[in-house]
Every structure is written in C-alpha cells, then in structure tokens.
Amino acid sequence: MSFAQSFAYKTLLKGVYDKDFPLVGIEDNEILEKAVFLDAREKEEFDVSHIKGAKWIGYNTFSLEAVKTIPKDQKIVVYCSIGARSQEIGKKLKEAGYKDVYNLYGGIFHWVNEDMPVFSNGQKTDSVHAYSRSWGVWLKKGEKVY
C-alpha cells in the first residue's frame, strides 16, 4: 500500500485488520474499476460524502436485504472510515456466499488523504464525516464534519 502515512496510522490499521481478510488499495485499479462499492458507515456519514457510485448499506442497521440485487460473484469493495466496520460487514457478505469481497485499505480517510474524490448529491465535495474528534485526527485532508 503506497501512502506516505504515519507509522502510527499504519500501526493502527495493522491492529484493526484480520490477516485473512483481503484488502484492496487505491492503486489496485483492476479490482476497483470492476467493483461495486458498499459504504458501511451510518447514513449521516454517507450523506456528508461517499465514493462515487457507492451504495449505502450501513453498519448498525445492515441487512443482507440491502445487497440482494448484487450477484454473488460480483467484485465488492466495502469501506467505512478506516476499515473496521467494513471488515465486519465484509465477513457477513462472505458468510452469505459472496465470493469476491475486499475491504478498502484505510477506508474513506485514506481515500481522501490520497486525493481521491468523494461526492455528495452527485457533486464532488471536500467534506468528509470524520466519525468523531478522536478518529478525525487520521483524516489529514478534506473538510472534517462531525
């Protein structure tokens, strides 16, 4: 994963991710271009901004009903703020028979920190829901919204 991120952030992420759950980085174009993006954050976070074309599925309210129209062999990239919630949703998807599921390395924070675009109401925005003030320290770019 190519990111001039701090040692502290890399260490945090290493502690969050399970070794056996696949990660995808922003440089993995072959996967990202073919994938459906699922946003595992809460609705108010998604409404502030999200990755273009992402489908909101939530975390606390997640149900397999939200993904029933997605084929089981479709490439899926799940993301949240840093990747903890999305990894848990990804595991549920795999248990339900989805075969090609990835967790977005570093979540939307890493995405924005690497100058990748986010959108709200179809328009590009700089705003990003920073989850909380303590988690917001990891969001180095964009306009933090709480």
UniProtKB/TrEMBL annotation:
Sequence ranges assigned to domain Rhodanese in this UniProt record: 31-120
Pfam families given in the database record: Rhodanese
InterPro entries, alphabetized: GlpE_sulfurtransferase, Rhodanese-like_dom, Rhodanese-like_dom_sf
Protein name per its UniProtKB record: Rhodanese-like domain-containing protein
Record organism: Belliella alkalica
